[in-house]
Amino acid sequence: MSSIFSSHFDYITLIFLLIFCKGCLGATFTLINRCDCTVWPGILANAGSSKLDSTGFELPSGGTRSFQSPPGWSGRFWGRTRCTFDSNTGQGSCATGDCGSNQVECNGAGAAPPATLAEFTIGSGTNSDFYDVSLVDGYNLPIIVQAKGGSGACGSTGCVTNLNRMCPNELRAEDGQACKSACEAFGNPEYCCSGTYGSPATCRPSTYSEIFKTACPRSYSYAYDDATSIFMCSGADYAITFCPSRMSQKSSRDSSWQETGTGTSIGSNLQSWLPNFVTGDSSRTMPNYALHFTLFVTFFILLFRCI
């Protein structure tokens, strides 16, 4: 009986170690391009966060690229389109989402509006991640963010609608390849949530932001659109997909697309981390001394990764 209890105790201890260390490892971001054309993603780390392995790169149609962030990282991702860079000098620019660096790398510069933004704050330890897709700076590409393997609500968010097709004429940019926000187009304080409109009480949705919100109800449509636009998850990795679905070509609304990034339970998340002799998927049993040795080694591996 005591040996059985000890095994279960070790198993429970390992579970808590895994939960803790998953949070201290940061998050993996995987960028996926399902557009019919090349996209040049840009990456901007917020002040106080270290930059990732790249600040801008070329991502061909069908391509993917992943980045590991440290705990506590915050920043944003976006897609640049219709870019031209000289093969000899590397210099050039993009029609939408350009960061003004005159290079493929953005080197600490952000996107020029209009651009669809995927924004993240990664928790450390047991703190939750926060993420959203924002149209506050306008729109140029459909984007979905999906949380993978986290615990909590972990909903998918984004905008799969092609807003460029339904953009009001006064907001159209780059020959219909992007759609400005009302703030960018007109500069009025009530649209920009500035001046006397610089608070949630005074800055309300506009006719223009409502167009964005109706088409993409999970995305930020104006500066104080927090209640239905910000999402939380713990210990997840994230897929950021440009042009995520052909559905965007068929519908003017994204209310019919299904969340595929809903949270999984802690138990099912840990299942993929544990060796099969611990989870019981193996047809062979392991002696207690071997199990204890394995748990001991696992503990120090995780401890080393968390330091």
From TrEMBL:
SMART domains hit by this protein: THN
Entries under PROSITE patterns matching the protein: THAUMATIN_2
Transmembrane segments: 289-306
Signal peptide (from-to): 1-26
Keywords: Membrane, Signal, Transmembrane, Transmembrane helix
Annotated protein name in UniProt: Thaumatin-like protein 1b
Source organism per UniProt: Fraxinus pennsylvanica
